TrEMBL record, chains A, B:
Keywords, ordered alphabetically: DNA-binding, Transcription, Transcription regulation
Domain HTH lacI-type: 4-58
SUPFAM superfamilies assigned to the protein according to its UniProt record, in alphabetical order: lambda repressor-like DNA-binding domains, Periplasmic binding protein-like I
PROSITE patterns listed in its UniProt record: HTH_LACI_2
GO molecular function: DNA binding
InterPro entries: HTH_LacI, LacI/GalR-like_sensor, Lambda_DNA-bd_dom_sf, Peripla_BP_I
Protein name: LacI family DNA-binding transcriptional regulator
Length: 346, 346
DNA sequence: ATGAAAGCGCTAACAA
DNA sequence: TTGTTAGCGCTTTCAT
């Protein structure tokens, strides 16, 4: 049951390795007899080509690398499932790395994946990444990269995002329609694409309904809510305000659960005192106390589409004249954390 | 900024590739001058050895493969973080594959990882795996494997598990102490180690407290709760019984949330009508409605220890005379889903 | 102290 | 139709 190589087959069948190689790849120039012989023997011996050797030769690996902040997060793990299902069908393997919201680890992961000759990269930026030259260099060298979710603004390649602006607008408008006016927003670092877009949607909804935007109602969590104290601080600052908010729109999984936890500990009644909407794909939203109103992203579909685009890029290396930036619709799931009953506004 | 190889350095410095190679590995037989020259040039050109070439040569890769049911699961993703932190410190990369509770995918993933020359494997069996010969063969060939969580009974290698028996015993006893007597158990397929151990702990606690074990109170979910209808069916069967249970002990993340969801939909009051304890590491247990009493596994530590053992195996290939089977203590987090107040029993 | 050559497994250009 | 050879990047034995 030891690993068998082309050489072994060649020796056993008294052929040259190239003949065996060609036979295995069903080359037209090989005698049918020979082919049969080789194929049968290979089958019998359970021959499997050595992908390492292939990678060394061809500088590719039939695998794609995924770099994202963390997998212990419903949004990302759903997205991974979307990635895997497409990749699997197209004959690619998926190698996942977590940046844990660290720029250094993102760079290290990138280098490793590249040295491992992945054929392309699927990336969602860490919350601490402001410099993306490590990706730009690769793009310049011709390595296909598709960004998703947290995408760099300027880079010229395919991008898949949720309709962050629309989702936030909808969430905020929903809060307004349930009678809330002092709506706070807790979010990730401002330089992330998702942060800016969600903030913009929030702001636009306020202004469209005649509520002035108030920067002091916006709190930023530097580590995207990964550090527990961030949420604590953000919530506390809001509670300490003269005009305590009557609603909070939280911008991510981590921030949402983190804030909920703080509010619970402080025995704040949701939604009576403060209503909550989260931009989150958390799976148990309806099991929470109270069931959580949430803007849900089509994570699986985002994974699907990003992977399709990436594989297209890999398999058709001629640079497309135009790169796509797709924005997929979110859906607002209304539950009790926002009371549900809507009142008439404006 | 193209990839630079030893050959390039050799050419540039008018040396042979072997000299460069040795200089880079700081071999004693190389002239200090030459070494300095090479090192400096390599540094300047940002030389990085090609890991693919190394793998091809040495049949190893400084990477370890992880095969587990799914990552969209707090227990497993916490465990992965434990794995990564140790591996990272020891200079290994971690490649994660999901079996999605499918035997076929488990086998496919295994083969792929082996062909990619991982130096060792960390495995938690899929819920549909009954035949483990794919792992046994590898062990026979000398590939280090450490099993965790869902481990095969007979196989001779290191294993890291939670104290499933103890955790279940504690959970069940807790239910009994809160006055429950008709305690049901919803769990995974019986042939999984975790299922048997948890069932045994549950049973022992019942019997120790004079409650006869009743097989009809035990429901099995073939896909470990991954298929929504499984939970539905299990709960429904329990509700349809003549003696409807007054408590349910659910054996995993998926089963726990699945059952909670069904109970919510049926407007069953927890814990008044039915109390719930879950064997789960779900992160938001205290945010649930009601906050969930849970047996929590030291997932991160399990990942740490499994990885330490694996790397020890990899780096000291001499077969250890004895393999370890470590069982790590769980902790029972008591919350409102079991009322909290305990009554005096037996 | 340094270099030449072989080999890890595979494919493809070139020869026969 | 089949075989020979070189090369992907690296290390190591065996010269020198």
């Amino acid at each position: 049951m030891e690993t068998i190589t082309i050489k072994d087959i060649a020796r056993a069948l008294n052929l040259s390795t190239s003949t065996v190689s060609r036979a295995l790849r069903n080359s037209y120039e090989i005698n049918t007899e020979t082919k049969k012989l080789v194929l049968e023997y290979a089958e019998k011996m359970n021959y499997r080509p050595n992908p390492i050797a292939l990678s060394l030769r061809d500088s590719k690996s039939k695998s794609i690398g995924v770099i994202l902040p963390e997998i212990a997060n419903n949004f990302f793990s759903q997205l991974i499932n979307g990635i895997e299902s497409i990749a699997y069908n197209m004959g690619y393997h998926v190698v996942i790395f977590q940046s844990h919201e660290s720029y250094e680890r993102e760079v290290a992961n990138t280098n490793y994946l590249v040295s491992r000759k992945v054929d392309g990269l699927l990336v969602s930026l860490s919350s601490l990444t402001t410099d993306i030259s490590h990706f730009e260099e690769l793009l310049d060298k011709g390595l296909p990269i598709v960004f998703f979710d947290r995408v760099p603004k300027k880079v010229d390649t395919h991008k898949i995002v949720a309709d962050n602006f629309g989702g936030s607008y909808q969430a905020t408008e929903h809060l307004i329609k349930t009678g809330k006016r002092k709506i706070a927003h807790i979010t990730s670092p401002i330089y992330l694409s998702i942060t800016m877009e969600r903030l913009a949607g929030y702001r636009k909804a306020l202004e469209d309904h005649g509520i002035p935007f108030d920067e002091s109602y916006v709190k930023y969590c530097h580590h995207g809510g990964m550090v527990v104290s961030e949420n604590e601080t953000a919530v506390q600052e809001l509670l300490d305000m003269e005009e305590v908010p009557d609603a909070i729109f939280t911008a991510s999984d981590r921030i949402t659960t983190g804030c909920l936890s703080v509010l619970h500990r402080k025995h704040i009644r949701i939604p009576e005192e403060i209503a909550i909407v989260g931009f989150t794909n958390i799976g148990v939203a309806e099991l929470l106390n109270p069931p959580l109103t949430a803007v849900v992203q089509p994570a699986m579909d985002m994974g699907n589409q990003a992977t399709e685009l990436l594989i297209k890029l890999i398999e058709h290396p001629k640079k497309p004249t135009i790169f796509e930036s797709r924005s997929l619709k979110t859906s607002l799931m209304i539950r009790e954390s926002t009371a549900g009953k809507t009142v008439n506004v404006s």
